[in-house]
Design a protein that fits this description.
CATH topology of the largest domain: Fumarylacetoacetate hydrolase, domain 2
CATH architecture of the largest domain: Alpha-Beta Complex
Low-confidence stretches: none
Number of strands: 26
Largest sheet: 8 strands, mixed
Oligomer: single chain
Helix content: 10-25%
Number of helices: 9
Bound molecules: calcium ion
């Protein structure tokens, strides 16, 4: 019997128990979890002896990032999660005597959950890759020849990954108008990319590879990921080495890392991969996840319009294939590394994961509930991404990642 009040349809049901970093009014960061509309202070919970049976140093919950906690390994971190679930189900729990362990989300600031040493961005949604290829090249030959043989990716910028709630100034850079010479100025084609990212929970050694069957053991959990993009800067700079300043100015992440164990119930079969992939990319079991995703656009002083309904299950390449490919050359990974999926688009127009696709390269108009129209994003627009898995009354979600666009700095 759960003794704490958890609203129906909460992303943070007893089945979730994510991990994050929060600070209260004193500004001191520490580790917490979220249950319904409460944040549970795990530093104080540990000091009551709740995790003593696991022989964890209680000071680990004073960490300002989750990396030291994650480095304890899945047997320990999963046991912490399970113990919290048991405690919330236990009417005689000691925690009931300490109501101040539970803090309202309105009283805290959420921070980046991990120190991200490296960030990789994949390009693993077939519909997105098709749409971009059709728009910029040829609808009859939209996917490049390598796309179905390997999960295409690039190394992104970790320093500019920001938590939900931190606002973003419109980026500036070189833009080439039509046939004219390039000019310098604020991006006029600022865009979001609806993605999810997984976080490495177990390092690998340089020179070794992680197989698809080992990969799940190396993945701690997932977040929602908004990979901001300046399409006009990107268009001019990307040849021949790929994305650079049109991407590196910021990406936003949701604050709670939902563990792979919490998401296991949402596993579904992936698409049949044709042509058959090379042996090192073959996998057994299900590694796609049915996670429903939404993007909301809120103009300044107005109401939100949900402009995209997508789903993480639309991926062509899954997490274990991405990690196997990433390390097949002997590249090592570290705890806290973040690997984003690539924009997640479905087949229908309303399921596209970027303004680039929703406005079809600026040729179509996206209509908002308040009568406004968009092709790309305007100053003071707020983009919010939501995601959750739900099956037979069981719901596990991510909350939201929310960012407002501010005008370019002078
Ligand atoms: Ca991306």
């Amino acid at each position: 019997m759960v003794w704490i009040d958890i609203p129906d349809h909460s992303d943070f049901s007893i089945h979730n128990i994510p991990f994050g970093i929060f600070s209260g009014p004193d500004g001191r960061k520490r580790i917490g979890t979220r249950i319904g509309d409460h944040i549970l202070d795990l530093e104080k919970t540990a000091s009551l002896g709740l995790f003593d049976h696991l022989s964890i140093d209680p000071d680990i919950f004073k960490s300002t990032v989750l990396n030291p906690f994650i480095s304890l390994g899945k047997p320990i971190t999963n046991s912490v999660r399970t113990k919290i679930q048991e405690t919330i189900n236990d009417e005689s729990s000691i925690l009931k005597d300490y109501p101040r362990l539970f803090i309202s989300p309105g009283e805290v600031t959420m921070h980046l959950p991990v120190e991200i040493k490296d960030y990789t961005d994949f390009y693993s949604s077939e519909n997105h890759a098709y749409n971009v290829g059709a728009m910029f090249r040829d609808p009859d030959n939209a996917l490049l020849p390598n796309w179905k043989y390997l999960p295409v990716g690039y190394h992104g910028r970790a320093s500019s990954i920001i938590p939900s709630g931190i606002n973003l100034h419109r980026p500036k850079g070189q833009i080439k108008p039509g046939d004219g010479a390039p000019v310098y100025g604020p991006s006029r084609r600022l865009d979001f990319e609806l993605e999810m990212a997984f976080i490495i929970g177990k390092k690998s050694e340089l020179g070794t590879s992680i197989s698809t069957s080992e990969a799940e053991d190396h993945i701690f959990g997932m977040v929602l990921f908004n990979d901001w993009s300046a399409r006009d800067i990107q268009k001019w700079e990307y040849v021949p080495l790929g994305p650079f300043l049109g991407k590196s100015f910021a990406s936003s992440v949701s604050p709670w890392i939902v563990t792979m164990e919490a998401l296991a119930f949402a596993k579904v079969e992936g698409p049949k991969q044709d042509p058959e992939v090379l042996p090192y990319l073959q996998y057994s079991g299900n590694h796609h996840y049915d996670i429903s995703l939404q993007v909301g656009l809120t103009p300044r002083g107005s109401r939100e319009t949900i402009i995209s309904h997508s789903n993480y299950k639309y991926m062509y390449w899954n997490t274990v294939q991405q990690l196997a490919h990433h390390t097949v050359n002997g590249c090592n990974v570290n705890i806290g590394d973040m690997m984003a999926s690539g924009t997640i688009s479905g087949t229908e127009k309303g399921s596209y994961g970027s303004m680039l696709e929703l406005s079809w390269g600026g040729k179509k108009t996206v209509h908002l509930k308040d009568g406004q129209e968009r092709k790309f994003l305007e100053d003071y627009d707020t983009i919010t991404m939501y995601g959750h898995a739900e099956r037979e009354g069981k719901r596990v979600g991510f909350g939201a990642v929310r960012t407002q666009i501010l005008p370019a700095t002078e």
